[in-house]
Amino acid sequence: MLGRPVSYRTRSSRPENLGKNSLHMIANICLTIFVIGALVVTIIAATYEPDDPLFQSSTKITTFLTSMSNSTFQSNNTVSRTGEDLMAAKQTALATFGSGTDAAETKETNSYETSSSECKVDPKEPLDCKDPEVFQLMMQKAIERFKDIHFNRFGKPTPGPEGNTCDMAWRFRPKQGKATGFNKDYRRFVINRDNCTVSVVSIGEYHSGVNARKKKKKNKNKIPGYEPASGLQDQGGFSLPAAGEMVNDSLPVVESERAFIHRKYLIYVGGADRCKSMKHYLWSFLCALGEAQYLKRTLVMDMTLCLSSVYTSSNQDEEGKDFRFYFDFEHLKQAASVLDQDQFWQLWDKWQRKDKLSLYVVEDFRVSPKKLTEVKHSLIMRKFGFVEPDNFWYRVCEGETGSVVQRPWDLIRKSRRLMDLVAAIGSKLNWDYDSVHIVRGEKARNRHLWPNLAQDTSPDALLSTLQNKIKDGRDVYIATNEAETSFFEPLKHKYTTHFLNDYKELWDQSSEWYSDTAKLNNGAPVEFDDYMRASVDGELFLRGKKQIETFNDLTNDCKDGVNTCNTAAI
């Protein structure tokens, strides 16, 4: 029996299929090459770190000044309790530093020399502070002198009172610490010019370069109907003040009758929020501001607040405290539509009948802002009664409203006058210090809720705890509510200690803070109260290179009393 032929061809190897198979093979090879190439590009893109000037440290800036460079500071985190931290990322992204490209480390240069062919300067003429070589030298020497800060931006130098002096301003923040808000400084440089060589002889003290302190510029993007807000703004709407600017927190002014009647307003009246803690005040105030923004209305606000007795030296509630003593009203009026209620009622009484301005009153906090969006009246007035807690403003933002009305925390920042004190003290310490927050006072005396706090914050216990956390001889800023700083005298044997009261000259009768706040207070002096002290103390604590907390590092007691640690952690 004859069998089948030995040679056998599959269907795929038949001549008529060879062309089709070749095309499939080529397509598969091309697809494989494309996938591999895309993978390689993705890996390179994910791991490549370009010399982006927005992510360089001030060390890189130093190299720019002796070659061709371009850099700025690195960002870090913050735990600030107001809105500065919410804007930090945007501010960092917008901050620029002159021009140039990044370069490698170079040796320090103490002076700049112009070639003989270009040197035609008369030594008798005043120094040209705007000369690029002088400007670069001043920037370099500032960076070399202040090694513990990140420089954000330098202002253009201006002539000082003498022919050999130049004033220059800059914005900065400490290299280490949890705070991200910018500080400003302006100093006087004494510059020596010997033939074609210029060198920096000395740099003045904090805020010595007064000629570089820029005045406010009017903002072209003004809010219709009000005087122009001051400062610079980006398209996102938040302010980015230039280094060395003065504070301009004057009240917004309505320009005309037409401007007033064409706007819609919201006001909160009554309630029991006054004279409560500052946290309570902000919680309620920001609810009102959030609703005004949701309804696209101007918030009519009381520029005075009642300071709770817990912050006053008299131990009594004190009325008539200006909002601007504690918070940055300049930033608020730039970013939100607000109007002082005293001015509002004057204009309302003047034009209400003539222009038939209408009033819509809401007496139940449970009336949702959604229901008020259709209200066409000129003024919506929320009235609050006398029964707590239903007469607290913040009740408006509870329940379902909380998902609609968002509290604009980014609009509340600490007063720039208080932040200037922080910058002044930090500069005196050269931003090279560690910080310790020591809570005592009422909590240390209450052994029932805080059984170990008094002992754990005693001088002997502090020395024992800090010896493994802070090196001997370091400058240590102690933020504390202990009235007698002599209590911490034993710590001076190991550390150079600093307290807020060591810098009283910054708010005494001869200080700029004293005169500025008195102007806001109709010429009457303003007390540097305990809330202001706590604000400055807290900001200085956050700027320490090392921060030692009371309830995490010094004692095992709970911050809010016995058996509350787990609750606080949730």
TrEMBL record:
Domain of life per record: Eukaryota
Residues annotated as domain DUF7074: 125-208
Domain DUF7075: 260-550
Keywords tagged on the record: Membrane, Transmembrane, Transmembrane helix
CC terms in the record's Gene Ontology section: Golgi apparatus
InterPro entries (alphabetical): DUF7074 (IPR055502), DUF7075 (IPR055503)
Start and end residues of each stretch annotated as Disordered: 99-125, 213-234
One Pfam family it belongs to: DUF7075
Signal peptide (residue range): none
Transmembrane region(s): 21-48
PANTHER family in the cross-refs: EXPRESSED PROTEIN, OS07G0633600 PROTEIN
Protein's name according to its UniProt entry: O-fucosyltransferase family protein
Originating species: Gossypium darwinii (Darwin's cotton)
